[in-house]
Design a protein that fits this description.
227 residues; mainly alpha; Arc Repressor Mutant, subunit A; Four Helix Bundle (Hemerythrin (Met), subunit A); 2 domains
Length: 227
């Protein structure tokens, strides 16, 4: 019985997480376990368990007035998220490079992810953006994963999931991200650690600035609704 419940809870978690990071569940949206359970064809219990995990991931907040709500992000949140990404991704790449794990196998994995990323980044629909972002996450996850520190990889996955919910709220200047990933891959092929770190830092800094602009736009669009 417990195994069945855990399986359903995991399925609910994966589905709801996918809906949030793809923008199908938008920031500020209230989640009702009974309605979600009916939609997913399961009982409310595994949905509630999934919501607790999503709260731990930083994708939901538990409001005493409204219950579980999809989290919205402000400028302070974005600054904190990107500060964490800078530390984690640069540190992980340095550790992986020093351990000899920035190798041809990783290059091939990154190149494959980048090709799919490039294809969907050209699209204009929310579905295209969501798919592009999934390959974006795969690229950065592979970089961090090369350090082979599961605790760091898990924390990084939560952080990137949070930053990407901002992109799907109000799509901004995202197309450049593909070429910045190409710059990182080119630096990896060149085999110079300093160039890899510099390319990664430039990419994350531009992404930070872009995300901050999106958060400001989103805040402005929501202000009239608060009056």
């Amino acid at each position: 019985m417990n195994m069945i419940k855990m399986t359903l809870a995991e399925q609910a978690y994966q589905e709801l997480r996918s809906r949030i990071v793809s923008g199908r569940l938008a920031g500020g949206q209230r989640l009702l376990p009974n309605e979600l359970a009916a939609d997913l064809g399961i009982s409310p219990t595994p949905v509630k368990e999934a919501c607790l995990r999503l709260e731990a991931d930083g994708l939901l907040i538990n409001s005493s007035r409204r219950g579980m709500v999809v989290r919205s992000f402000n400028e302070e949140d974005v600054e904190e998220l990107y500060a964490a990404r800078m530390l984690i991704e640069k540190g992980a790449v340095e550790a992986a490079f020093d351990a000899g794990r920035i190798d041809e196998a990783l290059q091939a994995k990154l190149a494959e992810s980048l090709e799919s990323h490039r294809r969907y980044a050209k699209g204009t629909s929310l579905d295209d953006l969501a798919k592009a972002l999934s390959h974006d996450r795969a690229f950065h996850s592979a970089l961090v994963g090369a350090a082979r520190i599961p605790m760091i990889s898990d924390a990084h996955a939560r952080i990137v999931g949070q930053t990407h919910t901002v992109f799907v709220s109000i799509p901004g200047d995202y197309s450049r991200s593909v070429e910045e990933h190409q710059d990182i891959l080119d630096a990896i092929v060149a085999g110079k650690k300093s160039q890899i770190i510099e390319a990664l830092q430039r990419h994350l800094e531009r992404s930070r600035q872009n995300t901050l602009r999106q958060v400001k736009v989103l805040a402005q669009t929501m202000e009239p609704n608060l009056l």
